[in-house]
Amino acid sequence: IISPQYYYMPGDTVKIQLSSYEIHTSEVFDVRVYLIKDPETFLTKQNNRGMFSIIGRDSSNLMNILEEVRAFKKTIFPTRVKNTDQFVFRGTTSYLPPQKGAYIMRISHKNKILTCGFFVTNLAILTRFTQNAVLNYTSDRMTTEPVDSVKFKVYFNTVKLGEGISPGSALAYTFSWKDKESLYRTGTTYPL
Question: Which of 39, 52, 55, 182 has the highest Cβ tally under 10 A?
């Protein structure tokens, strides 16, 4: 099991926890961290927007838009559960990202690979969707002050509907009839 947060402030240490009840000896894990060079392409090619994968929905390999920024080994030791013969395997691996951006961490052990994605940013985005429009508001995550002149791109079901630069800290995008037709035809309206 791999359990990250998904958003970190610049300068925060990313901590990923691994746990298992099936590993009973110390094990060495190979950890690789990648910076996503083109987050827009990477995210629009995902099969499941709830998790990151290096294989796109069209079976394309997305490694060409990743840049490896760190690789290391991590050894984790199991501990015995008190008053039982069972072992629990828990360990944390840490990484300090060098810059803002979107990242993927891949942790491999024997023939298993765990992948998680995370973002390093001080920008917070509050999004409100209605049947006819989407409103985006941006602020600084630490100070909560509004952030102006942010470039937004609006996607539904990996189809780009529009883009714009917020004149203040908010940008409204009104859906066209073509947008609405596309949304109703697919039957799903997951924002990206």
Answer: 52
Q: Which of 138, 145, 66 is nearest to 106 (CA)?
A: 66
Handedness of CA 188, 175, 46, 50 (dihedral sign): negative
The pTM is what?
Answer: 0.78
Strand arrangement, sheet containing 87-95: 2-3, 14-20, 87-95, 79-80
Alpha-carbon distance 71 to 150, whole Å?
A: 33
C-alpha 103 chain-centroid distance: 7
Element (H, E) at 105: strand 101-109
151-176 per-position pLDDT tens digit: 888 777 677 777 888 777 777 777 77
Per-residue pLDDT tens digits for 51-75: 677 776 666 788 888 999 999 998 8
